[in-house]
Design brief:
Elements lengths: L4 E8 L8 E2 L1 E6 L2 E7 L10 E12 L1 E6 L9 H10 L2 H17 L2 E6 L6 H11 L6 E4 L20 H15 L3 E5 L18 H13 L3 E8 H10 L3 E8 L9 H9 L3 E5 L2 H4 L9 H14 L1 H8 L3 E5 L12 H11 L4 H7 L2 H7 L16 E5 L12 E6 L2 E4 L30 H11 L6
Parallel strand pairs: 1-5, 6-7, 7-8, 9-10, 10-11, 11-12, 12-13
Antiparallel strand pairs: 1-2, 1-3, 3-4, 5-14, 14-15, 15-16
Bound molecules: zinc ion (ZN).
Zinc ion (ZN) binds next to loops.
């Protein structure tokens, strides 16, 4: 066994949502956490390396489970879209590398990309895994599946009808994605796609889920509308992104029965607090009035999200980085937004961006919390994030797989074969998915000897 590096800290926030442990000491060997103790009980074995970080707080590396590495977070949707549409694949790849590295320097050690163009994020993911470039661990959906003229159709993943969506899901798996992404409703970024209505039938969604599960991938669905929520829950989509309950007349139709089903099926919601939401965070020159107006607006936007959480739905939060004014280096603002929008403590907001997404992505065996045996993905922060999530802005060092990847000068260390591969938990595929409903009905009719069409 190789030597142990000991980090002597001001405190540890372990990602589980529990109280911080003050004066904690954490040992790392062979890329994994070997021991967590307190300064009082700590005696460094001879020859081990001891780093004095007693003015810094240690946390698990943050996980941002909804990003778009190929997008350029311009001031509005139209120019962000124009840029991704007109970029060459080489430009997209380089932009993805730059964005991934900015996230890593800000303490995000794992990202899940939920929609690129040209499958370029798969190359970036693999380049990080091989140690060719520095970057966070990347899980990616590649090109998202959408309808003709549907949300993000400009990324190239149009598929209509049962056969085409099955084929699209199979294609994504052949390309080597980690997760399959589908646009279940229209989206605001795509003019004319109608974000208030679903764009796939339940049957089409079932086919995507069935194929993805059969091939060992979970499914994440973009969903902004109540009817879209219903269909996704019906189809058993693993992870509902955004999870808004808007109606065609721009009202809200929260449905307790659907939420109950969502919970029963153990599906996740991924609440994105994007650049748009971050603007509701009070800033220094806000008056008391303008600050409280902003917070009221933010809380209103997430009223149904809070209801789902109160009902016990499995929840995580993410940023949607890459969309309009949502920079990769500002993830701390998403965590801070969650404190206000979702009525959670900073420590709970940290759980929602560490252990919770690790569980949702099925990688919690290796990452997501500071526990003995897990990979040493961690960050050291000045200030105490248990007091204010905004302190996450002051990330001073970052380790991924036990290696220091951001040093105290804020530089990205050279990667050299960082072992960032994680084990994904297996997926149980349901026996009823195989055939679309129509086909199932006709088989049943045949089996029962019925003759009607
Ligand atoms: Zn998105």
């Amino acid at each position: 066994m190789s030597e142990t590096t000991w980090l002597v800290s001001r405190a540890i926030i372990d990602g589980s949502g529990g109280d911080p442990v003050e004066d904690a000491v954490l040992g790392i060997a062979d890329g994994r956490i070997t021991e967590i103790t307190t300064r009082k009980d700590f005696r460094a074995p001879r020859d081990d390396i001891v780093l004095d970080l007693s003015d810094l707080v240690l946390l698990p590396g943050l996980i941002d489970a909804h990003v778009h590495l190929t997008l350029s977070h311009r001031a509005d949707h139209a120019s962000t879209r124009a840029e991704v549409e007109s970029s060459s694949l080489e430009e997209l790849t380089l932009r993805a590398v730059r964005n991934a590295q900015r996230a890593l320097l800000a303490g995000v050690t794992t990202v899940r990309d939920l929609g690129d163009r040209g499958w370029v994020t798969l190359q970036v993911r693999d380049a990080v895994r091989r140690g060719w470039i520095g970057g966070p661990r990347i899980l990616t959906a590649g090109v998202p599946i959408t309808t003709t003229a549907g949300h993000c159709c400009f990324l190239g993943g149009e598929a209509d009808g049962v056969l085409e969506v099955q084929k699209a899901a199979r294609r994504a798996c052949r390309e080597g994605v980690d997760v399959v992404k589908v646009m279940a409703t229209g989206g605001i970024m795509t003019q004319g796609s109608n974000s208030l209505e679903p764009q796939y039938t339940t049957e089409e969604l079932m086919c995507i889920v069935g194929e993805a599960h059969r091939l060992g991938r979970k499914v994440a669905a973009h969903v902004l509308a109540a009817e879209g929520m219903r269909r996704c829950v019906e189809a058993g989509v693993d992870c509902l992104e955004h999870a808004f309950w808007t109606t065609p007349d721009s009202g809200v139709a929260y449905d307790e029965e659907i939420v109950e089903k969502l919970k029963e099926k153990g599906l996740w919601i991924d609440l994105t607090l994007a650049g748009y939401d971050r603007q509701f965070l009070p800033v220094a020159d806000d008056t008391r009035d303008s600050a409280s107006r902003k917070l009221t607006a933010l809380r209103e936007r997430f009223a149904e999200a809070r209801r789902m959480m109160e009902a016990g739905v499995k929840t995580m939060i993410a940023s949607d980085a890459g969309v309009r004014f949502c920079r990769f280096e500002d993830y701390f603002e998403t965590v801070a937004c969650a404190v206000y929008a979702l009525d959670v403590s900073p420590v709970e907001a940290i759980r929602l961006t560490t252990l919770a997404p690790a569980q949702a992505l099925g990688i919690e065996k290796d990452v997501g919390s500071l526990e003995v045996g897990k990979m040493a993905d961690l960050i050291a922060v000045r200030g105490h994030p248990a007091e204010s999530a905004l302190e996450l802005k002051h990330v001073e060092r970052v380790w991924a797989g036990g290696r220091l990847v951001r040093d105290e000068a804020g530089l990205l260390a050279s990667p050299i074969e960082i072992p960032l591969e994680v084990e994904r938990s297996p997926i149980a595929s349901s026996p009823t998915w195989m055939q679309p409903a129509a086909a199932r009905a006709s088989t049943q009719a045949k089996n029962s000897g019925a003759t009607s069409a």
